[in-house]
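Name: Acyl-CoA dehydrogenase
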Amino acid sequence: MDARFTPEQDHIRRTLRELLHKRCSPGDVRAAVDTPAGYDPALWTALARDLGLPGLALSEAHGGVGGTTTELALAAEELGRALAPSPLLATAVLATPLVAALGTDAQCADLLPRIASGTLTATLAVPGACLAGVLSLTGEPRRDWAGGGRAGGVQAARREGGWRLYGQVGQVLDGHSAQLLLVAAHAGGYARSRTLLFLVPGDAPGLVRTRQTSLDATRPQARIELRDVPAGLLGDEEADVGACLARTGDVTATVLAAEAVGAADRILELTVEHAQRREQFGRAIGSFQAVKHRLADVYVQVQAARSAAYYAAWECASTAAASAIAQEGERVGGLALAQALDSLRTAAAEGIQLHGGIGFTWEHEAQLYFKRAAGDELLFGPVHRLRAHAADAARIFDTGEVAV
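Structure predicted for Acyl-CoA dehydrogenase:
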């Protein structure tokens, strides 16, 4: 394993950091989340047109850069440092791999180039309140997770004019602004019960989208209601949606881990800078041994999380996860995400403590990092369940004994 980054990967990170430093200050972040879209469309256009972020892990045949999950993770790390609100996670990480893996040639040719150029944003809508469970991060989803033919969830019915969807999804990342929704719905009734993915345009008749108030404003969510909404089937009816969602979950966890590492690294930098400036008893508080020990512990934890995130990205890239998402391989994204979320939560909590009275105020940016840590754990965790599922998958606690 060669752990060194290529010159191209270093260039992506350096260029993105410079762009975000100029156009994504804490004031810019606060202004962007208050817009109807929840992000700055001009910044998103720059990220897509100048840096090609939505197409980093897409092949050149589909208009992408031809990179891997590693490049996407490095970009996410820089976005995490700035807490930059953007549709990158929903579009390039959740939706795009599913379209590439399950879509027909015609669907891929139509959708992927527009996603790569940034002119089409997309997201994944799955019923229930636990996206982590559907992506197999905290456990294997139940067979009837999309509704199972009963009330609730999302149901798909075949009509003469095509498929129609009915139901509601409560937590959809960027669901209020995405131009394309990938909706998971139950179809087939009891006899042929199965879950399929459907393509729903953002302006489809009968689709009602409502932005929700969320703990982390930089990660906007929406509730969508489907009232006899026309939809197109993604791929064919024989597709193994569950396996593709599980592999998508590993890629998602890897990218999220890198993003959390970037956020943890930045709040640690802010805390160290404050400790060097803030004086108490005639000395900078950073000179006190107790403060040094606390910051050193956070630094070690952040570096360990970075190593785990980079390894997970390398593993995803080595199995060509972005283009062949159904391939089997070692899935370490969930464990890397647990480590990264734990480090971000610790770094944010210590940052608020060591900033003193200003750390928990609404005006200071430290609280934004704490909310990112808490919000991500609610959406994709909690940490102990991520670790428990990873341990179960690796059979760490399997004694191998056979009952007689």
